[in-house]
Amino acid sequence: MLKRFIRDEDGNILLLSVFLFLAFTAFAGLVVDGGQLYMNKTHLQKVANAAALSAGQELTTKDPKVVEDLAKEIVDKHGELSSLQNVDIILERKVTVKLNKPVKLFFSSLFGVDSIDVPAKATAKIGVIGRGYGAAPIGINESMELVYGQEYTLKVDETGSSTGFFGILAIEGPGAKTYEQNLMHGFDGELKVGDIVNTQTGNIAGPTKTGIDYLVNTCSDMNDRDCPRILLVPVYKPYNYTTNQLKQVEITGFAHFYISGPMNSQDKTVKGVFMKRVSHGFEMDQAVDKGAYALKLVE
């Protein structure tokens, strides 16, 4: 009986060992297949995000093909053009990039499951900028009706007391930049809807000409997204008048202004074109829509 019991114990151990081996093999196979799926999912999502964000920068264009082509270009650069299902576009609102890729499996193929489709989707949406960095120290009255693409002549007010559509702003912040430096390189700090800003006093025609002439020589194409001639300018409403002089304004939004040529020193004007454009900034619901938009992923 003792010998038979020992033989039975050996058999049980053998069966248990086989069962444990199969269990560990299955677990290892699932880990391998799961890791494969996870890596592909992560990669595809990054590609979809990048394509949506890049294509979203062109949502203000009048041609949806420009948006679609840019999305395809980004997907192709990541080697996933064959995974692209479609690009859904609503101009001036949002773009959605959808990818789908069949991923081959290793362990699961032993049970007849050769691959699993891995989807990825990203949507980039634009909203009106209400907070922005790098703004120029010039502004426009919110009552100004803009015709995008049309050239405007903005008068430089030497007294800094503009009561019309165009004003010079005294922006102060980190680095203590001068007005001229802020015009050439943008304000270092953040401006946002609701901020109260002083108007610039004194004769600023000379510094304005220096800054405008500098910017005109930085680039020549208004379609260049990094062109410094495209200024982010605050939109304001009058806030504080003193003896018929506008002393302070309240920021209500932002606009983009492309400087079309050097400043005319004789009549002290700045010529340029307002344009709808997606740039860096943060959306705020209460911001006035003057064509300056921020971009964010919403899914």
UniProtKB/TrEMBL annotation:
Annotated InterPro entries: Tad_N
UniProt cross-references to Pfam families, sorted A to Z: Tad
Descriptive protein name: Pilus assembly protein TadG-related protein
Ranges of residues in domain Putative Flp pilus-assembly TadG-like N-terminal: 11-57
